[in-house]
């Protein structure tokens, strides 16, 4: 049940007061305020980053230290457009651009646009998400997908997104790799975003 997962996130955020969590919800909840009720009942509203504070027009997001200081450490996006007005849950495509997911999104030297997303080059959307996973998840094959190919993809998508590094990376089996894997990829992205270096540990 969603509430059980949300309670796990509540426990994590409570135990880790410097951490920030983002949820991208493929939203099929039809009951009015049904999704809001689950967030409220799980306690997660305590950490909510309000949609009215989310920058539009490609403007910069708040600094991590400010989000931590305000305890607004849970960012939630929904795929249901109406929920931004009815429940105050941010509509994903107002803020994020993505490349294609699944088999069409793991082709070497290609970073094509996801259909629902604005163009990757649309800098009115401040956040970039790179998908890199096959349509059918196979754990043993994911070791290769999450290694050098993943780093190559985030470099390719950097160019496709108008020289913007990804803020988020979506993969299958994030712990599986034959090298540094997703952790190496995220270290690279954080390094590039934080100080323009190839590894955050060099910042």
Q: How would you characterize the overall build of this protein?
A:
With 203 residues, this protein is α/β, with parallel strands linked by helices. The chain folds into two domains: 2-94, no CATH class; 96-202, no CATH class. It has helices at 2-15, 34-42, 64-69, 83-86, 139-145, 148-160, 181-195; strands at 21-25, 74-78, 90-91, 96-98, 127-131, 168-170. The protein has a three-stranded parallel β-sheet, with no helix packed on it. β2, α4 and β3 (90-91) form a beta-alpha-beta unit.
Total number of beta strands: 6
Computed over alpha carbons, the radius of gyration is 17 Å
Which geometry do the CA atoms define?
globular
Strand content: 5-15%
For the terminal residues, how far apart are their CA atoms? 41 Å
* Assembly annotation: single chain
Low-confidence stretches: none
Structural class: alpha/beta
Helix content: 25-40%
Query: What order do the SSEs take from the amino end to the carboxyl end, as H and E?
Result: HEHHEHEEEHHEH
> What's the arrangement of strands in the largest beta sheet?
1-2-3
Mean pLDDT: 95
Number of helices: 7
What is the number of independent domains? 2
Tell me about the largest β-sheet. 3 strands, parallel
Protein name: PI-PLC X domain-containing protein At5g67130-like
Organism: Camelina sativa
Pfam families: PI-PLC_cat
